[in-house]
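Allow me, if you will, to draw on your knowledge of protein folds for a short while. I have a record of one protein: its chain in single-letter code and its fold written as discrete structure tokens. I remain grateful for any guidance, and I place the record below:
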Amino acid sequence: MTKRSPDASGRPSQRTGRRTVAPRKMSRVPRADAVSISPTTLAPLKNPTFRSVWIAAQVCNLGTLMQTVAIGWLMATISNSTLTVALVQTSSALPTFILSIFAGAIADNFNRRSVMLATQCLMMAASAMLTTFVALGFVDPSIILGLTFLIGCGTALNNPAWQASVGDIVDQRDIPAAVTLIAVGYNTIRSVGPALGGIVLASVGPLPVFALNTLGYLAPLSATWRCRWKVRTSPLPPESMITAIHDGVRFTALSSEIKAAIARGTLFGLAGISTLALLPLVVRDQLAGGALTYGILMAGFGAGALLGGVCVNHLRRVMSQELLLRLACVACAACCLSLALSPQLAAAAPALALGGAGWVVAWSGLGVNVQLASPRWVVGRTIAIYYAFAYGGLAAGSWVWGTAAESCSLTSALLGSAGALLLVAAAGYLLPVSERPKSDLDASNQFGVPAVALDLTPRSGPIVVKIDYRVPQENIEAFLELMRERRRAQSRVGARHWTLQRDLQKPSQWAETFRTPTWTDYIRLNHRLTTADKELEERVRQLHAGELPPQMKLSIERPTSSPEPR
């Protein structure tokens, strides 16, 4: 029922006899100062496709941030509830928490450019509806929050496709700078968008701001439509949505680098969003200012983000990402303390600049870690899961600090946020983010589909893989160490029910087994194996003793109730 291949990798081996091989340590990824990265943050802008889409995104961001000012101030004027004002941030962030995992699966299984075009149309339509409702005088808080939520849905579906496309558009050495530019671009526009939004809002009201934002979506639509970039295609059909989500969640759960970035991003968003969520209330209640004051303070936040973004590439070369994240948390905590204890415009603007610098350094660094810890086949899903938790933290934080401000006081909420940010910095001792800025996780492309005696269809399965080893007593400890690594490697790319068995009657005989749901999943698993995975396989083979190399058997499970085997 099975067909044997020469060994687990399909390559013949000339080695025979027994030998003892000491386990070789897994090769460590170089530190940041030993890795080839872009010398400047602006290097990716030399790529015309990235430059065009990135600039168009900034035009769209300008309109979005102008609209954020208008919505925040409009809600502060039509509602007396501080919680309702804070929920503006929640309505924008919550869709990402709900939809990101589906958006990531879509980004990895379908044409990312087409996904971007569709979601940009959705955001433009929702913005046009908001403009229409405001023009007709429908300014009920529930309507505004509902349409803000719909725009957030478009953002949730668009971001994984755009972020995952970065690795397709630019060279790998430019990925850190490109991810930083995306974060810097958005946060730098804060230095223009809020101030401009405040001026327009104070001069002519919210309607023109909403109309300008609607027109702003034409820029990314046009750029994405005109630009085409090469995407690595797979000869295999797309995964089902359930399988794609399962594979993405499993890979993320088995990646310590991604899990650390997700945990710290969630905590940072939860603790740090108070500055943006409560700023309209700071302006209204503590500074006794208006829309223009709000815009000026948001401009200070954006100016700090610009400075942080310009410096962050240099900072990555002189200090670890963990230290950068801790400093970013401290900077944001200092911002909250200043807003709470020094309610004057002269103190608030520099404090927000410091907070903006910390904000962009933290988010860009975490985003780079996720990108570089993810192979191309799953990058959309890992980014989406990261965004889901990060935006979940932002949404929850907006509600928490809004509730704290309403139940206690605005000052108490800001002080609580500062304390929470310091705890996030201290969490680095338990959940340190990875210091490795680059990881070669591309597929090795060394797999040839094995010949089988049965006529299988792509959906035939489940497929059972069994690899037999003969391991002498002196090699067992090293063998078990390597097999622990192999279990993680195989499970990351799709192996299910992985086991290692030892023969009770012949203790030198060991068997590695795992399953895949279908024949196509088995082929997909082997296409996903990286060069590092292949090197690990070779090191396992060196511990095998015998005249023949490790033997692999492929089987298909058949239920006894089946009328006839295929």
Observations:
- Confidence is low (pLDDT under 50) at residues 1-36.
- The longest helix spans residues 48-78.
- The beta strands are 463-470, 496-502, 509-516, 551-556.
